[in-house]
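Sat 14:20. Reprocessing the chain from the morning session after the first attempt stalled halfway. Input below, unchanged.
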Amino acid sequence: MKDEYLIRMIAETCKTLSEIHWPTECRYLPGSYNALLQAARTNHPDDPFLKALPAAKDEGSRSKTTPIPPGPFPPPAAKDEGEAVTTAEMNILFAQLRIALEALQDSNTALVATTHG
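Finished this time. Tokens:
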């Protein structure tokens, strides 16, 4: 999936999450975040920042998918057993991923401009 579509999905998710002003569990969002993270890593396999981003602990997903390898840090939802990731934590993860992808797009644009300029 192209980065521009990943960024669009992330932006829409962040917009919705930012409108929630109370602590809420997000049991179904980690699966979406993990899929977006995996797509970003596929598009940019050598990017150290994307490699370092943690996968979110997915306790609410009903689908049986192969989990993506976590980054070098523990998942943010790995607290007490059964405790889901919160809206604030998911908003932070989605925002970090969006900014990383935007930076990679800027880098790619600059590289193309210098190569063909």
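The mean pLDDT is 80.
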